[in-house]
From TrEMBL:
Name of the protein in question: tRNA-dihydrouridine(20/20a) synthase
Positions of the DUS-like FMN-binding domain: 22-327
Pfam families: Dus
EC number assigned by the record: 1.3.1.91
Function as written in the Swiss-Prot or TrEMBL entry: Catalyzes the synthesis of 5,6-dihydrouridine (D), a modified base found in the D-loop of most tRNAs, via the reduction of the C5-C6 double bond in target uridines. Specifically modifies U20 and U20a in tRNAs.
Catalytic activity: 5,6-dihydrouridine(20a) in tRNA + NADP(+) = uridine(20a) in tRNA + NADPH + H(+); 5,6-dihydrouridine(20) in tRNA + NADP(+) = uridine(20) in tRNA + NADPH + H(+); 5,6-dihydrouridine(20) in tRNA + NAD(+) = uridine(20) in tRNA + NADH + H(+); 5,6-dihydrouridine(20a) in tRNA + NAD(+) = uridine(20a) in tRNA + NADH + H(+)
CDD domains to which the protein is assigned, alphabetical: DUS_like_FMN
Active site: C107 (proton donor)
Site (Interacts with tRNA): N104, K190, R193, R306, R309
Length: 336
């Protein structure tokens, strides 16, 4: 049964810090991945995979909105371009306890373009502004936008400022800027993450020209040293694939980015804390690989990493007691 649309409630959570976040990534940042990442960093803002308005309004909304309380601070990323539909989905997100709703204006795939979702919306700043206003009028939680610095055919700095200005005037105060243009014809989504050159200078100019806005930098960031450097210019940084493939870098985020005095969690303690979650997932009828596929990168950087990955990606599917294989992999992390 679809969730009912509630009237606009008051936000019950403080607005999350966006000083460091992990990007929404399709097929990757599901609830199991987010639970795992949360074990590594208490303060990192986590995002869901992009969820379309149609999936929430006409599909199994409970499945898409489901999350563990431990995942907070947590944002839902929406894909859509109909203001009323986005407002309805924002209400669902707020009702489900999310801390933020983010509108995807950056995905370059043909599939989403055909539904007027993602980066193609940069060519329609007035529509994006209408979408943001509808969501802001509907909910008390933060409404943010993630976008590119342009698209082919609309990639001048003046056009970028026009886009940000119109969306700002609709009430958006936080923009996550992927510092590449998106080429909407001829490049795959993967190629759009690599081929258009990174232009951190354009994003920095945007922050200089819109000092009242929160500007979060995304694109090509791989180390905490780079994060610390970018935070001298920007209000926040967002990591994508590096955070997924090398998740243990999140273990130092709370200390180095947020100034926490808590001790850095070890790899061994991380996997030990994950085990009860896995057991509960198995008892509910889930499969072990739903979780373990997200933790393969935890072994990166030590001599037993290859064996760790082999156990969790291959051997675990052949063993009659997969949890025993998980425990075997965990033993490789002892003392690390």
């Amino acid at each position: 049964m679809p969730l009912e649309l509630a009237s606009k409630p008051q936000a019950t959570r403080p607005e999350p810090s966006r000083r460091f976040s992990v990007a929404p990534m399709m097929d990757w940042t599901d609830r199991h991945c987010r639970y795992f990442l949360r074990l590594l960093s208490r303060h990192t803002l986590l995002y869901t995979e992009m969820v379309t308005t149609g999936a929430l309004l006409h599909g199994d909304a409970q499945r898409f909105l489901r999350h563990d309380e431990a995942e907070h601070p947590l944002a839902l990323q929406l894909g859509g371009s109909v203001p009323g539909d986005l407002a309805g989905c924002a209400r669902l997100a707020e009702g489900a306890g999310y801390d933020e709703v983010n509108l995807n204006v950056g995905c370059p795939s043909d599939r989403v373009q055909n539904n007027m979702i993602g980066a193609c919306l940069m060519g329609h700043p007035g529509l994006v502004a209408d979408c943001v206003k509808a969501m802001r009028d509907a909910v008390g939680i933060a409404v943010t936008v993630k976008h590119r610095i342009g698209i082919n055919g609309r990639d001048s700095y003046a056009e970028l400022c026009d886009f940000v200005g119109q969306v700002r005037d609709a009430g958006c105060r936080s923009f996550t800027v992927h510092a590449r243009i998106a080429i909407l014809e001829g490049l795959s989504p993967k190629e759009n993450r690599d081929i258009p050159p990174l232009r951190y200078d354009v994003a920095a100019q945007l922050k200089a020209d819109f000092p009242d806005l929160e500007i979060v930098l995304n694109g090509g960031i791989k180390t905490l040293e780079e994060c610390e450097q970018h935070l001298q210019t920007f209000d926040g940084v967002m990591l994508g694939r590096e955070a997924y493939h090398n998740p243990y870098l999140l273990a130092e985020v709370d200390q180095r980015v947020f100034g926490s005095s808590a001790p850095v969690i070890s790899r061994a303690e991380t996997i030990a804390r994950l085990r009860p979650y896995i057991v509960a997932h198995l008892q509910s009828g889930g499969a072990l690989h739903h979780v373990t596929r997200h933790i393969l990168g935890l072994g990166q950087g030590f001599a037993g990493a290859r064996r760790f990955r082999q156990l969790l990606s291959s051997d675990i599917h052949k063993h009659p007691e997969p949890l025993a294989v998980f425990d075997q992999a965990a033993e490789l992390l002892q003392g690390r």
